[in-house]
Design brief:
The structure is a homodimer. Chain A is an alpha+beta fold. Chain A has two domains: 2-71, Winged helix-like DNA-binding domain superfamily/Winged helix DNA-binding domain (Arc Repressor Mutant, subunit A), CATH 1.10.10.10; 85-136, Dna Ligase, domain 1 (2-Layer Sandwich). Chain A has helices at residues 2-11, 18-27, 36-46, 52-65, 132-136; strands at residues 34-35, 69-71, 79-81, 88-92, 98-101, 119-130. In chain A, the strands form two sheets. Chain A has a three-stranded antiparallel beta sheet. The interface between A and B is large, with 36 and 36 residues. The structure holds a DNA duplex.
DNA sequence: TCTGAGTTCTGGACTAAGTCCAAGTTCGGA
DNA sequence: TCCGAACTTGGACTTAGTCCAGAACTCAGA
């Protein structure tokens, strides 16, 4: 995946740098939703001197390109989702863990008269739950 | 509303203090979703010396009681929703403004085999959009 | 009405997440 | 290879939220 992601960065007029490569690799092949700090830690395994500011800006670029999804569902920190095809999320309100929900149910559409003049881009269903670990403690 | 809300605080074993009254009044009769800081500002109009820490702890108590909803949908700060009956949200991803969506569409239910062992409490549909103000700028 | 135990509040210090910026470095088209 | 534009760095800063010890307050019971 990351090769084509880097290609796409290029198509969008971004330069290919070691830092962007490291962030792309950090996001490659994972199916959990990392926080910016976790992405930074993984990228730092590949490129130890990468700075937090660079990771943040690269994540913003990828979000803007639509290559990843920025989730601000619960907790203090945003999480980044490499799966951009429409899907829903199951969130533990107490620890912030997020699971993808793959069942094919699409979020119901929003009637135009409810849109408050806003341009709706996507809809998702968020299931608020408590995970086993948090239930036990 | 706030009278009964205070009654319910009492029923839950909480004491009635001027500070809790002020927070309850700050949330009373509004239909926008305030951030903790905005709640603090409104409460401070009623009780100028109320501290941030108190507002935060009162908001947590009310959330725990189920009297208000804590929303962490987008942006850096949580917002508090005095409407606890099931409804959906329309969010501007760029400025964080949240509108309630009143149309009667319920979020689809989550199949048990998708629940990852988590106890699902509620589901909501979140519509991600850009508001008129942000579109213009 | 008074009292005292226990609850609540305060304000300031602290933490975590994220942003900003100036200066130095690197990329890649010509 | 050269050079300008784009990118990165790291440290300071901002914002949102938490923590804590001591002071103030609430309210049940006398």
């Amino acid at each position: 995946m990351h090769t084509s992601l880097l290609d796409r960065l290029r198509l969008h007029g971004y330069r290919l740098t070691a830092q962007r490569r490291a962030v792309a690799e950090a996001l490659d092949g994972i199916n959990v939703h990392l926080t910016a700090d976790e992405v930074h830690a993984r990228a730092a395994d590949i490129l130890p001197e990468i700075s937090r500011a660079t990771v943040y800006s690269t994540l913003h670029e990828l979000t803007e390109m639509g290559e990843i999804l920025e989730l601000g569902i619960e907790g203090r920190s945003k999480r980044y989702d490499p799966t951009t095809s429409p899907h829903n999320h199951l969130v533990c309100d107490s620890c912030g863990v997020i699971h993808d929900v793959q069942h094919g149910v699409a979020a119901p559409e929003l009637p135009l008269n409810e849109a408050h003049g806003m341009a709706v881009r996507r809809a998702e269903v968020v299931y608020h739950a408590t995970c086993g670990t948090c239930l036990a403690s």
